[in-house]
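Subject: Sanity check before I submit

Could someone independently write out the structure tokens for this chain? I want to compare against mine line by line before I put it in a report. The sequence has 259 residues.
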Amino acid sequence: MFSRLHSDIQCILDRDPAARTAWEVLTCYPGLHAVVMHRWAHACWRSGFKWLARFISNFSRWVTGIEIHPGAKLGERVFFDHGMGIVIGETAEIGDGCTVYHGVTLGGTSLYKGEKRHPTLGKNVVIGAGAKVLGGFTVGDGAKVGSNAVVTKPVPAGATAVGNPARIIQEEADVQREATASKMGFSAYGVTQNDDPLSQAMRGLIDNASSQEHQIAMLWQALEKMNANQGNAQGIQMPGDAAKRETFEAEKLNQLVGK
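---
Independent answer below. Compare away.
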């Protein structure tokens, strides 16, 4: 028990730059308190003491602001960062090394008893603040769910889910997406894109810029062909930095803002 507690404290020290000492984590982190009390509640639940398990769970909710059904399964080194408003359903499973931020719901979409109604998180999954993961599917190892995303279908290992409804972005594309967003001073991470007026405006600007670059490239190509036909003496002097090829990646930027 003490070895597992030490592991829980160390994982918080490793992941939270605001955590300074083990004593501070032990006494002041409600996420740790919720995990410890859930283990007591889960042990009672499995032993058949259902009412006692629910009572401990309810007390933990009152003290920490984190609601975990005693039937839910938690792995090792699970970190509820801030934690307030987290709700985890009865058949949910959280793998080793997961990080879950405040306001997250691991909920169900079925009302039938005995079914797998809540999601399963693989190892080292990160669920952003306010995200809702609803249904009895699996979020793969190392996946990320963006803030305020609403996920209703499986997420592959290593992928990222963003938006409402969530779009699945593969890991290799995720790095490029965030890098491009940073250069533009705009990040769509975890933002609903379908009816966001800012995203619609961005898509319009991207399409317009792409069209203009295409027209400019065609003009330079036409001038170059004219020079070749007329000869250098009579032709128009071509600048060295003339953009005769299109380099504007409209498709990637449209994916960035959710088209």
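---
OP: Matches mine. For the report I'm noting this point. Residues 197-230 form the longest helix (34 residues).
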